[in-house]
Design brief:
- By secondary structure, the protein is of the alpha/beta class.
- The chain is 40% helix and 13% strand.
- Strands 5-3-7-8 form a 4-stranded parallel sheet. Strands 1-2 form a two-stranded parallel sheet.
- β7, α7 and β8 form a beta-alpha-beta unit.
Length: 216
């Protein structure tokens, strides 16, 4: 049983009784390399884990050869409703910054978490070029809650005016697996430099990375 630590640690003892249990933080890009390597080893394919990590690093390096050196679009990756946003070290934000983006949240504070709260007033002050919104709240009818859009400040943001607000998929919040981080690399490049990198079909790209015999 492979789990996300922050969601399951409290029940680790009970889960261990069901099956061998291991949990990872799955939060930071530097942790992703370790996690992929360890899971591959647990599954009996240690060399595959090393290969996946090296391939991703090479793919990132390949993208960097096409990234404009004189452009550094600012961005924020935030949760809808809670106004909590990712620091540089979180996997999705790390990939964006590696590609030349400038995260308005900056680095994690010492002994801090990978997210911090940000008010709409501060968001307006920093006024990022790109806003990536992670949705998680739904109402009793199953509709996504976007209360932030009702705030007058939201409509003043440059990203809102310029159509550069992206409502992102789950791969942006749980990004540490080998498929998710590859998809994020492709999506991030497009969001930062749409004139250079094409928009991708996320499901189609993911299917290319999954063995055909596992397709459903």
């Amino acid at each position: 049983m492979i789990a996300i630590k922050r969601y399951t640690a409290a029940n680790a003892e009970q889960l261990q009784k069901i099956a061998p249990y291991v949990a990872y933080n799955m939060e930071l890009l530097n942790g992703s390399y370790k996690e992929v390597a360890e899971v591959a080893k647990i599954m009996g394919y240690p060399e595959r884990g090393k290969q996946l990590n090296e391939e991703f690093k090479q793919h990132l390096a390949n993208y960097l050869t096409k990234v404009p050196k004189d452009k550094h679009p600012s961005f924020v990756i935030m949760w809808a409703g809670s106004y909590s946003a990712f620091h540089d070290e979180q996997t999705a934000a790390s990939i964006m910054t590696a590609l030349g983006g400038k995260n308005i949240m900056g680095s994690m504070p010492v002994n801090g978490r990978f997210t911090s709260n940000i008010s709409l007033e501060t968001l307006l002050e920093k006024n990022p070029d790109i806003i990536i919104v992670l949705e998680w709240l739904v109402d009793d009818k199953g509709n996504t809650v976007r209360t932030h859009e009702d705030n007058p400040i939201w409509k003043q943001l440059s990203a809102v005016k310029n159509g550069r607000v992206i409502y992102a998929g789950d791969e942006w919040s749980e990004a540490n697996g080998p498929i998710a981080r590859e998809i994020l690399l492709k999506e991030s490049a497009h969001y930062l430099y749409p004139e250079i990198f094409p928009k991708i079909d996320v499901k189609a790209e993911a299917l290319k990375m999954i063995p055909v015999e596992l397709h459903k």
